Amino acid sequence: MTSESDPAMIKKGFELGCCDYVVKPFTKEELLARVKTHLEIYSKRRKLEAANNELSLFCSAISHDLRSPLNVTQMLADTLKQDIRAGNTEDALKIASMIEGKTAKLITMIERLLSFSKMCSIEPEYETLDMNELVRDIFDECKSAEPERNITLIEGILPQISGDDVLVRMLVKNLMTNAFKFTRHRQNAVITVSAIPDESYVVISFRDNGAGFDMAYADKLFGVFQRLHLDEEYEGSGIGLATADRIIKRHGGRIEAYGEVDKGAEFTLYFPK
pLDDT digit string (tens) for 162-204? Predict the structure, then answer.
């Protein structure tokens, strides 16, 4: 706010970081209108930066999240060919149906990701989701990719949630993939999924008996390309948990993590009721 009218001084003010100025004497209405305009510009810039970060994250996540179901589909196709050669018509029809289901889910996922890339944001399409069915489906998918593993799913009675089917599947897939990966060196790996009573949220916990992590570095878990283990120990791109964090926030919730080195990890999802 200034009574200065010298163009050189006004130019210097802008060079020093001023985004606007009001000349005295001023009216309250003009001042508030200018402040409101700049607050709106600032808010839109923040939203644009967040959208660009999310776009970058999801573009990186495409190969990460689509590779596993594609590998499973390829394995099913190979099995289908073997059944056809052996004349096992009934088994071949079952496998063909499984391939059809996996392909439909992949197409839906790709369409949503493409929509996301076009509009730089994706709003959840809410529907009622059976979390027991969803968790079991994703566990079976992960297990089929590593059939030689001795890994057990202990699944409690989970509540239904209101969420976007594609996004919640990506969220659970990232947590389940992590549990499979970090229990790899356990002879008897166990993944426990259970519901936790809460007044304000639908709370679902994913716990494993794997490698765990040091809580001193917990704040890095949900950052893009942040990893707590070396590639030589466990492969990964460093975007899975960051993606999970973005998805749960899009649903108005949050994710929390707890772990101990060599004693497993627990990720807790909070969906608003």
Answer: 999 988 998 999 899 999 999 988 999 999 999 999 999 999 9
Strands (E), 210-253: none
| Burial (Cβ within 10 Å: 0-12, 13-18, ≥19) of residue 84 | middle
For 216-225, the CB contacts below 8 A with 24+ separation are: 218/257, 218/258, 218/259, 221/257, 222/255, 222/257, 224/53, 224/56, 224/57, 224/60
* pTM of the entire predicted model: 0.60
b/e 92-110 (16+ beta carbons within 10 angstroms → b): beebeebbeebeebeeebe
Strands 161-164 and 201-208: unpaired
| Distance separating alpha carbons of residues 139 and 150, to the nearest angstrom | 13
Q: What angle do CA 150, 139, 159 make, to 5 degrees?
A: 130
Please enumerate in sequence order all residues whose Cβ is within 8 A of that of 23, keeping only pairs 6 or more positions apart, or say none: 2, 3, 5
Task: Find tokens 């069915």 and name the residue.
Answer: 133
Structure tokens at 54: 């999310």
Strands, E, within the chain: which ranges?
126-129, 151-155, 161-164, 189-196, 201-208, 254-259, 265-272
